[in-house]
Amino acid sequence: MNQITLTGSDWSLSFELAQAERERDQAAAEVAERIAVMAAHRDWMQAEFASEIAALKNAAERLQAANRAKCGGEAQQEGAGGEHWDIPRPQPRRPNRSAERELKALYRTISQRCHPDKTEDVDLHSLFFAAAAALGANDVEAMRSVHAEMIGRGTARRLTPHDARMAKLKAKLREAKEAIDQARQQLEWILCSPDWHSSQQFAEMTEKVGEEAATTMMRAAFLQKLMQIDAQIRAVTQLRPTQWAHGPVTVVFGSGWL
Known about the structure:
There is one protein chain. The longest helix is centred in the N-terminal third of the chain and has 41 residues, at 8-48. It contains eight helices and two strands. It has a two-stranded antiparallel ribbon. Helix content is 75%, strand content 2%. It has 258 residues and is mainly α. The radius of gyration is 31 Å and the shape is elongated. A hairpin with a 2-residue loop joins strand 1 (252-253) and strand 2.
């Protein structure tokens, strides 16, 4: 039965991998928890303020329609005074996804063979640096050339058991670090999202004044936003002021009402 001798580098890399996997799991759990908080708050908002949300959407659509009508009328007036040239804007080039995937796949293959941590052959190190340069320049042809040269040198040899074990540990560590980076990006997006801000504001209001008062305050905020949009619509279309209906809460907003 073959015995495997673990070196200091094995223990060090294994410890680093264990730490990274623990950090990855904690970050993933935090992301899941915050997403659950946002989802619960969004579901409650849609159930509690269904009519207000519908009125806001309707008002936003009417404001967009008014702006489009105004811009169309101004364009017609401008065209009546002289020639109007519609200069097409250049469209951004879409990245070649297949070429990008090939570039990264070739780089990983070359890195597994030629990285200074994987081999002591200085000639192979030069291939790794050339591959890194091609990756930085997004040059697929250069990366293919480096890969072909690597194959030509017969570098696709079998690794020793120690090298294979180290390569496996390093691959797992790289995957764990990539997952950590992805989780951090998700957390950053969550903390900047309107849903998260809304959920935290409502939680703070509930803690200060209670859930019923906080709900009333949020309903008043919806009403204030509707009045702001209605004022913008009147400013665009130069309509007469909104008529207030009987009662302290019900307000007529053009064709919609709250």
